[in-house]
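Input record (one chain):
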Amino acid sequence: MKKTVKFALVTVFTFSLGVCAAAASPAIQDISAKFNPNIKYTLDGEEILEGQGAIVYQDRVYLPVRKISEAIGMDVDYENETVILKSAVETESKQQEVTFDGKKFDISFEIPKDISPYVTTEYLEKDAMCILKFEKDGKSANIGFFSFFDEAEYDKMDPTQMPVPTEVLRVDGVVAAFQGLQDMPFEAPSEEADLITLYHDNLDILFDSFTMVAK
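The corresponding structure, as predicted from the sequence alone:
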C-alpha cells in the first residue's frame, strides 16, 4: 500500500510557484522583497526543508508552496493562475501476468484502496486483453481494460477512423494501452456508483503507477 496524490482541494494563493505577486493585483508586478534564510519549518515537531528560508514582503512571509506541499504528502500544480493542491489518496497494487506474441510480462498498477477489494483482473490471451472487473454485493461490471499491441501495429492506428486505446507504456516493442468506462454502470446515488466515481477520477494514478516488466 502506498499514498498517491490526486485532486481534492483547489485554493487560490496571492503567489504562484516560486513567484510572489501583490494581493488583489490585476496583473503581475515587479516588487521589492527580502529573503530571510533564517526562517525554519517544522512538521510534527521535526524540522523539514532545512536551509530553505522564505521571502518576506510587506511584513508577510511567502512560503515555498511546492516544497511544503510535497513535505506533507501532497502534490501541487499551477494552472490559469491557480495553485492546485492535491491531497493524498491511499492506493493498493494490482498485478497480472500477461503473454503477448510469445513474450511474458508482469504488469502492475495502483488503484484507490477503497475500491481495491472489489476489483480483480483477468487476462484473455486470445484477445490480448487484461480486464478489470468490479464486483460487490452481487453487482458487477467491467470497469476498463488494458490491450496489448505490436508497436508498429499500434502506431498505424488512425484515431479518426476508429477508437484507439490510450497508450500507457512501451516495453520490448509491445504497447500497453488502456480503455476505461464510457458510461456509469450503476445508478446513483449508491455506494457502487461512488466507488466507480472515485476510481474514474483517479485514473491518472493508474497510468502513472503502471509498470510492465519482461520475464
